[in-house]
Amino acid sequence: MYPFLFCNASFGENFFHVLTCLERYLAVVHPITYMRLRKAHGIRIRNISIVCVWLLTFLLSGLVYVDLHPQFPTMFLTPIGICLAAVTFCSFSVLYVLIRPGPGEGGRNGGRVDRSKLRAFITITVILVVLWLWLGGILVSYSLYGSNLVGHNMQRADMQHNSSFNSTADDCGAIVYFDLGISIQSIRTFFLVPIYTLVFYLGVQQWRQQRSFSAASHSDIFTFNMAALQLIWVGGTVVWAWALSTGIPQIVAMYPFLFSIAWFGENFFHVLTCLERYLAVVHPITYMRLRNARGVRIRNISIVCVWVLTPLLSGFIYVNFHPSMPIMFLILFGVCLAAVTFCSFSVLYVLIRPGPGEGGRDGGRVDRSKLRAFITITVILVVLWLWLGGILVSHSLYGSNLMGMDVKCLLLMCAYLFNIPSSMVSPLLYLHRAGKLSCSWFPSVEMSLNSSSTVNTSLNSVNRDCSNSDLSNLIIIIYGITRAILLCPLCIPVLCIGLKRWRKKCSFATECHSDIFTYNTISLEALRVLGLILHCLHKLTEVPELLTAGYCLYTITWFGENVFHILTCVERYLAVVHPITYMSLKHVRGSRIRNVVIGCVWLLSLFFTTTLLFHFTSMILILNLSMQAVSLVLRWLDAFSVSDTHAFSCMDRQDAIANSWSAYGDHGRHISKTPSIEDNKEECTARNETTDVRRTANKNLCSQGVLLQIVEMSANSLTSNYSTIVWAHNISTPFLVCSIIDTTFFATRSVLLFPLTVLILYLAYQRWRQQGSWTAVSHCDLFTYHLAVMELFDILGTVSLLCGLLTGFKDIVRVSRYLYSIPITGEFFFHNLTCVERYLAVVHPHTYIGLRSARGVRIRNTIIGCVWLLSFAWMLKISLYYPLYPIVPSLVVFTLSIVIISFCGLSVLCVLSRPGPGQKVQDKEGVDQSKRRAFYTIMAITGVLFLWFSGIMVGIAVRTSVQLSDDGKCLMEKCAYWLNVPCSLVLPLLYLHRAGKLSFSVRTCGIK
């Protein structure tokens, strides 16, 4: 778990560095775009970017954590290289803006530099330096680790460091390496936690003052998000230390995931900060536009995207580690560096060129804001290049033969120290802007850059090569503790400032996007601290689960920080280069976009963190058998395991196999160990029967047993599996019949739902084009739209099922089951929401009218987001229970849904039956038609839910019945699935009827 947390924090840190540099780049190079992004639109974009950073952080951390492979360093270095490229671009762009003369200026005015642009350049440069320092540390450490220059006493003859990044865990076998690694991580934590704590405190103060982050600088928002990523890193360090102390390998394995999240997120937010500065300088009109509600929405969407991409990348690296993983890291890092570099040069260009009406003589008069943007982007660029250089040098030395394994591991662990500048640059810049730092060389700098960069990640390979050594653990724990010590003083003031701002404004809508990113980064940093605590607890208690949790927290921080870095740079880029766009993003729309992005980053981070936990309990999405193969062998193996106390004859085994055909779809049994083919042959030979008929049956059964073994062990194509099954048994076997019923059910359901779904989505698109917003859309209609989108997962699951059956890919067939679980769960919730909405419209009309306002729309959107989260959580629960099915939780959810809907129906019926004010009992015919329609809607939903519930109960009763044969149980259980079809069709049909697309008339019901 520690690698997960570590990767999470590292990735997130780089992303937020990139975001910070992009924000500075926009502030200098595109000031119009930057000003546009200061509005609600820009806030939305900022939030979306932050969310994307978080999602990417979790994704990359999960990938690093779950699927480690020899080329992991390349995949790890790719995001660093991308971030470095982005920050470098921002730096040179801002530098170009700084050095070029402005309009009407001559070369003699080159000394007059805009202070804001200079600050943006310094910010980007600082980020660039720390990123290069971090990269250099990694490269040096891993280069020395792979070299043969230092000590050979711990190398093995079969080790190939230049091609294998996750060699054996005994490469750095001494426990002192782990202790050294923990020590380094602890030092890093001690440095970063105070800083990010201060950042969090300031962010909270700012939020308490303004009650919104809409007016906050985009860079500050990015810094807040990076602080959150750093907290994830710290949490991963704690988890790792705890896991190492307790000896729990699962917790140790989670650290790379959390580390990756922080690392990716940091880079992303660095890029966003540089972009924000870039817009403020280069495109000021765009930047000013992004300061409105539109810009706030864009900012929020960016943040959400960062948070989504961060866990996705972390989870991908964690789950699917393979030799090309280091290339992925380098590409991502390169993108971040490119973005930040572009922002830097763009801002520099704006700074050096003469402004309108200025001559070359006026070049010395530089806009202070542009100068600050340039400095911000340059700082981010420098730290990113430093981080990348450290990574490249460490891994180059690790892959060389210049030194022994002891020195390699030591240098590899020490590469973590190159990440500290990358993690500290954003919070320090934020504190300087907030007036908490009095740097004489940086006077009156009020950076808009705010991507509180937090962690970065040491590659997962350390977990493979050096993670079992005491020295490595010591370094990591020290690093995490030091990081927490450094970040906590920064995070707490930032949060306090944000709280003060919120208390003043009671909203974050006016908060700068960079500030929002910073707040989120600090939240990630809190997770990192938690991971560090869990790591230390693992070291003390030797509980493996603690180490797994610590890694997950670290990876969340890693990826999230990188994404928030990118968001910060993008926000700065828009503020400088595109100020008009930036100002437009400062409005409500921008705040929404920003919030969406931040939400996506966090959601994906949590999603992939949970996926990693499932992986270490051997219950994740990929299994070695397809659904059909598991169903085929399930009961057959179970029969053998139950009767292992006495020997089976071939005739007994025939009965057991015959019963197994009726077990298709019965996931209530565990898979036991499969008897070998030789066991079947020897047993059949030893159990000779006296009659010729028995011998013939034994001979046939032995052939069948061999065929079943071939089906289980090879299973390269489900088509060939079906052929084998049909050849070995009669075509009318229950297994084949149940398979046909299953496939027919899902295919028919998809055929019925697909046209309705497409038509509903088309009508929704038409309505959106007419109105340009979903605000005026009825809550019930919006629920139907989301349910239609969920039904697409059902259709995708059917396609996956058919493709898996045709191509023989077992994993595709299993994934289809998880896709089916999303719409089934969503149906329950959206049915409940529709009935509650109808209930409020009839029973509480005043409350219903109040919910039609902007406040009600926000509540509705929040609830819809929760429904999607619960649907995906249920999918994860299905994977956790696999091959079983969570019947009890399903029945609980189903029962609650029926109770809620029944209450709504009875309440509406009571309102319809009682006379209204001033009415007599005889005036029942004058009942409001809208209330009557609401009643019929609730009754229709109640009816289909009861029908579906009855089907489930019948299936459970049939499965537990002793009166029916196995063939009858299988057929009846599969046929009960068809009772779900009306439940899936009711809401689409009701919507189409309201839209006038259904021509039938139900006059007696009044549904018109």
Automatic annotation (TrEMBL):
Q: Name the Gene Ontology biological process terms.
A: phospholipase C-activating G protein-coupled receptor signaling pathway; positive regulation of Rho protein signal transduction
How does this protein lie in the membrane? Multi-pass membrane protein
Record domain G-protein coupled receptors family 1 profile: where: 1-430, 756-991
Q: Does the keyword Transmembrane apply?
A: yes
Q: Report one GO cellular component.
A: plasma membrane
Q: Which InterPro entries match?
A: GPCR_Rhodpsn_7TM (IPR017452)
Which CDD domains did the record assign? 7tm_classA_rhodopsin-like
Q: Name one GO molecular function term.
A: lysophosphatidic acid receptor activity
Task: Give the primary localization class.
Answer: membrane
Subcellular localization, as worded in the UniProt entry: Membrane
What stretches pass through the bilayer?
Answer: 45-64, 76-99, 120-145, 187-204, 224-243, 255-280, 301-321, 327-352, 373-398, 593-614, 746-765, 862-885, 891-913, 934-956, 976-993
* UniProtKB keywords: G-protein coupled receptor, Glycoprotein, Membrane, Receptor, Transducer, Transmembrane, Transmembrane helix
| UniProt keyword annotation of Transmembrane helix present | yes
Protein name per the record: G-protein coupled receptors family 1 profile domain-containing protein
